[in-house]
């Protein structure tokens, strides 16, 4: 499928290690790059989820090409256990997550994800719920500041919030171009030459789509469904995402902090790890991949394998 370059695709498929007859999940279908690579790697079945109806529609060609082996499901990957159960799937041999936006979403001004071209201030991955415009025009200064600081890790969050409040008194903020200009007026450009609007746009997108909770629910659900020996691979694009992946994998692998000797939990039965960490440290894109696809520069891949249940 043209128009989207899946990040760390070869590394993800190598860790996933698809096998003939297996059942795999592509939890973030997007442009279909991972699904296609899995289906080409083995005679297996793939169930792919995406909350964006446009992504599901684009996947029709891939479904036809891999007749009977690819099933597309519209919905949130946080609900993957129920979505897969509705298709008779209660166990997986592997799952892959790519938490980045697809190029189809970023490059379409009408979706409102990017500040590079003017468009409506939307940012919804699906078609329901509040838009980014709803948030910037309704939240008070404290709530805006907290949102931008928490989800955008923007140290100038208060200045941005105040600039938004001032600007919306003149007229509602309804376009990406106007919001980007407002943020740029409040945030000095750093030495890294990253657009000052980047972190605020990230924060709004995360809030609009409830992304962090979706990641935690989706990863936990996939771990539950993995068969012994099954692999899970997650590709993150900023520290908030990677932190969740790292913590959930570490906890499931028994690498989390031990309770204090004064904590009653220390009296419970010994924890039996459910995962084995495959990547001690996150895998990052090569210089060649970043040169070919600059959007890959912040990607971090982590992988783990499901252990057999203890007798």
Strand arrangement across the biggest beta sheet: 3-2-1-4-5-7-6
Element order, helices and strands? HEHEHHEHEHHHHHHHEHEHE
CATH topology of the largest domain: Rossmann fold
Measured as a percent range, the helix fraction is 40-55%
Q: Hey, roughly how much beta strand do the residues contain?
A: 5-15%
Gyration radius (Cα, Å) is: 21 Å
Distance between the termini: 45 Å
Mean pLDDT over the full residue set: 91
CATH homologous superfamily classification of the largest domain: Vaccinia Virus protein VP39
Q: Class of the largest domain, according to the CATH hierarchy?
A: Alpha Beta
Second CATH tier, the architecture of the largest domain: 3-Layer(aba) Sandwich
User: Which sheet architecture does the biggest sheet show?
Assistant: 7 strands, mixed
Task: Domain count, please report it.
Answer: 2
User: Could you give the count of β-strands?
Assistant: 7
* Class based on secondary structure composition and strand pairing: alpha/beta
Based on CA inertia axes, which overall geometry fits? globular
- SS summary, helix count: 14
Poorly predicted tracts of residues: none
Q: What would you note in describing this structure?
A:
The chain has 14 helices and 7 strands. It is of the alpha/beta class. It folds into 2 domains: 186 residues, Vaccinia Virus protein VP39 (Rossmann fold, 3-Layer(aba) Sandwich); 97 residues, DNA polymerase, domain 1. Strand 1, helix 2 and strand 2 form a beta-alpha-beta unit. The longest helix is centred in the last third of the chain and has 15 residues. It is globular.
């Amino acid at each position: 499928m043209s128009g989207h370059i899946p990040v760390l695709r070869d590394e993800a498929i190598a860790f996933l290690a698809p096998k003939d007859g297996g059942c795999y999940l592509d939890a973030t279908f997007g442009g279909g790059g991972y699904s296609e690579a899995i289906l080409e790697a083995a005679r297996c079945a793939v169930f792919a989820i995406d909350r964006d109806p446009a992504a599901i529609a684009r996947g029709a060609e891939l479904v036809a090409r891999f007749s009977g082996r690819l099933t597309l499901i519209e919905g949130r990957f946080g609900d993957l256990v129920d979505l897969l159960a509705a298709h008779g799937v209660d166990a997986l041999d592997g799952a892959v997550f790519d938490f980045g936006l697809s190029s189809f979403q970023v490059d379409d001004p009408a979706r409102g994800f990017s500040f590079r071209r003017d468009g409506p201030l939307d940012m919804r991955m699906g078609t329901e719920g509040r838009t980014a415009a709803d948030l910037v025009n309704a939240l008070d200064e404290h709530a805006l500041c907290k949102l931008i600081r928490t989800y955008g890790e923007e140290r100038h969050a208060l200045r941005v919030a105040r600039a938004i409040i001032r600007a919306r008194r003149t007229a509602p903020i309804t376009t990406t171009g106007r919001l980007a200009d407002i943020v740029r007026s409040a945030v000095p450009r750093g030495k890294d030459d990253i657009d000052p609007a980047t972190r605020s746009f990230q924060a709004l997108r995360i809030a609009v789509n409830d992304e962090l909770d979706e990641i935690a629910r989706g990863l936990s659900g996939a771990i539950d469904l993995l068969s012994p020996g099954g692999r899970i691979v997650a590709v993150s694009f900023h520290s908030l995402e990677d932190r969740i992946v790292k913590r959930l994998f570490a906890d499931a692998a028994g690498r989390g902090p031990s309770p204090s000797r004064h904590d009653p939990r220390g009296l419970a039965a010994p924890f039996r790890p459910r995962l084995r960490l495959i990547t001690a440290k996150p895998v990052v894109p090569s210089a060649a991949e970043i040169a070919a696809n600059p959007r890959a520069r912040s990607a971090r891949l982590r992988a783990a394998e499901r252990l057999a249940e203890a007798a």
